[in-house]
Design brief:
By secondary structure, the protein is of the alpha+beta class. The protein has a single domain, classed as 2-Layer Sandwich (HIT family, subunit A). It has four helices and five strands, in the order αβββαββαα. The longest helix has 22 residues. It starts with 5 loop residues before the first helix and ends with a helix. The structure holds zinc ion.
């Protein structure tokens, strides 16, 4: 993927809108917490770094520390609302090569809850597009998370 990537484009847009976008939950110093693309996992969100960085080891030490605390705060609030069985985090970036964490609450009633979060999808059993957020449903989740922010 070439620079600027799809996440750079989104960060750019959120900056222009001062974070006023249905998918934006919260603007941190180093990142945006945004609603995930789908609601297959209730409360699924993502954390995008504002700066274009491809690899974790390319962050400064200060960014690393601050981002860890931003990720922790986002995780804590989502956990408090949805009380999942387990919180999962994924940092891959093979497609969008710009640091972004998937923050995925996992629930015991998901038959795949002890597996990689997208294993069911990979087996072709679930089509995530069936669960795609609309602007309305994204804003509803963003509002709920903001309401529980302290
Ligand atoms: Zn980027």
């Amino acid at each position: 993927m070439s620079f600027p990537d799809v996440i750079c484009e989104k960060v750019d847009l959120y900056n222009k809108l001062n974070g006023d976008h249905p998918f934006v939950v919260h603007e941190f110093k180093n990142s945006y917490l945004v609603v995930g693309d789908h609601y297959f996992y209730k409360g699924y969100c993502m954390l995008f770094t504002k700066r274009h960085v491809r690899e974790l080891h390319e962050l400064t030490d200060t960014e690393t520390t601050e981002l860890a605390l931003e990720l922790k705060k986002a995780t804590q609030v989502i956990n408090d609302i949805f009380k999942p069985w387990k919180m999962n985090h994924m940092l891959l970036g093979n497609q969008a090569q710009h640091i972004h964490w998937h923050i995925i609450p996992r629930y015991e009633d998901d038959q795949y809850h002890k597996s990689y979060p997208f294993s069911d999808v990979m087996k072709g059993e679930v089509d995530l597009s069936d669960y795609a957020h609309t602007d309305e449903s994204a804003k509803e989740l963003a509002d709920l998370i903001r309401k529980n922010w302290d």
